Amino acid sequence: MFSVSIKGVFANSQGEVVLLLNERDEWELPGGRIEPGESPPSCLRREIMEELGVRVQVGPLIDSYLFEVIPGKHVFIVTYACTLQGAFDARISDEHRSLGCFPLAALPERLPEGYSRSIASWAEATAHQGSCTASCTGAAS
Description:
Structural class: alpha+beta
Number of helices: 2
Order of helices and strands: EEEEHEEEH
Distance between the termini: 53 Å
Strand content: 35-45%
CATH superfamily: Nucleoside Triphosphate Pyrophosphohydrolase
Oligomer: single chain
Low-confidence stretches: 131-141
Helix content: 25-40%
Radius of gyration: 15 Å
Number of domains: 1
Strand order of the largest sheet: 4-1-6-5
CATH topology: Nucleoside Triphosphate Pyrophosphohydrolase
C-alpha cells in the first residue's frame, strides 16, 4: 500500500510557479497527504495554508501518477490547478528547506518529472483558458 499526496500548481502574483524544496533536496509542488474523511480540495487548501500561509481556490484535476520517492517507497500523487486568493505573502513552514518562485521557462533542476509534467499541463490549460476568455468576451479579434 502507498500513501496519497494531493499537490497544487499555482502562480504567485508575478506569474511564477510556486515550489518548495524538501529534505531530499528536490523541488516539489505544495500539498501533502490526505486525511481520512477529507476531500482532495479541502486537503489541498489545508496543506497550502499550513506550508505557505496563503489561500488558494482549488480548480480542476491536472494529473495523477505513482511516484517512487526513494527506492521501494511509492506515493500516489494527484495534482490540481489552483488560483491564489489574495496577496502572496508566503511564509515557509518547517516542513521544507526553501520556497522558490520560478518563471515557466526557468524551472529548477531537481524537479521530478511528474511535477514538471503537471506544471506544463497547468500552463497549457491556463494559456488556453486566457485565450478562450478573451475570444469569448470579444476582447480578441
